[in-house]
Amino acid sequence: RKEVEQDPGPFNVPEGATVAFNCTYSNSASQSFFWYRQDCRKEPKLLMSVYSSGNEDGRFTAQLNRASQYISLLIRDSKLSDSATYLCVVNIGGATNKLIFGTGTLLAVQP
Amino acid sequence: ETGVTQTPRHLVMGMTNKKSLKCEQHLGHNAMYWYKQSAKKPLELMFVYNFKEQTENNSVPSRFSPECPNSSHLFLHLHTLQPEDSALYLCASRGSTGPGLKQYFGPGTRLTVT
Fold it and tell me: B99 falls in which pLDDT band (50, 70, 90)?
C-alpha cells in the first residue's frame, strides 16, 4: 500500500465548477498535513496546511479526518489558473520531519 | 520570489561525466533536503541535513554524493550516473523545530543523463 494515495486524475472541469480531491495516508503517527500545488515543470508550492477542524482559504477548503486517515481539498468556482497538479503531503515527524508526497492529482480547468 | 535558489536549472550530462548541483537558501533555515522527482512518480526524499549534519540518507546510490558546507548551501555531486537518473532534482529548506513548519522548494534542476 502506498504511504500517501491520491487519484491521479486528470480531473477535467469547466470554469466555475466545484471540484474535490481526496487523499488517504497509511501512517497513523503522521503529525501534520499539507496540500501543495505544482505547475507543469515547476517546483511544488505550499497551498495550505490541513487541520482536523477544517480550514478555508478563499475558494479552497481543506479537511482532515484522522480516524479515517483521510484528507480532502475542495476548490469552489474553479478558475483557469487553478489548472495544476495538487499534491497531498504528510509529515511523519521524527528528527528529520520527513514529508511523504502523493503522486498528485492533475486538474485541468476548461474555458 | 523563492528564497531557495538552485543552479543549474538544466543539465545534460554523459554517464562518465562528473557534475554538481548547487542549492542556496536565503531564509535563515537550518534544515535542507534533496528530492528526486521522476515522471509519474511521487517526490522521493534523498538526503536531509540538519545544522550541516546529514540526518537521513534514503538508500540513495553512492553515485549521488551530498555536501553541506554550511546551513545555507547544499550540493549534490554526481558521477557515473545512469539514464534512469534523469529527473527533476529539487532542493528544499525548512526552519527549526515542530512538525508543522513548512518546507520551501527551489525551482529544481532538470537533469538528463545521456
Answer: low
Q: CA of A8: which chain B residue's CA is closest?
A: B40
Task: Name which of A42, A46, A104 is nearest B102 (Cβ-Cβ).
Answer: A46
Q: What is the dihedral of CA A33, A39, A42, A48, to 10 degrees?
A: -20
A46-65 residues touching B, CB cutoff 8 A: 46, 49
Determine the residue among A91, A97, A98, A100 to mutate to test chain B binding: the one whose Cβ has the most chain B Cβ atoms within 10 Å: A97
pLDDT for residue B55: 81
CB B6 within 8 A of CB B22: yes
**How high does pLDDT run on average in chain B?**
90
In chain A, which residues have their Cβ closer than 8 Å to the Cβ of B93?
A: none
Q: What backbone torsions phi and psi does residue B16 show, to the nearest 5 degrees? A: -100, -5
Q: Is A26 helix (H, G, I), strand (E, B) or coil?
A: coil
Chain A within 8 Å of B32 (Cβ-Cβ)? no
Distance, CA of A49 to CA of B83 (rounded, Å) = 36
Rounded to whole angstroms, the Cα distance separating B52 from A72 reads 36
Smallest CA–CA distance from A43 into chain B, residue:
B107
Complete DSSP assignment for B44-102: EEEEEEETTEEEEE-S--TTEEEEEEETTEEEEEEES--GGG-EEEEEEEE-SS-TTPP
Report how far residue B19's alpha carbon sits from residue B81's, in angstroms, rounded to the nearest whole number.
10
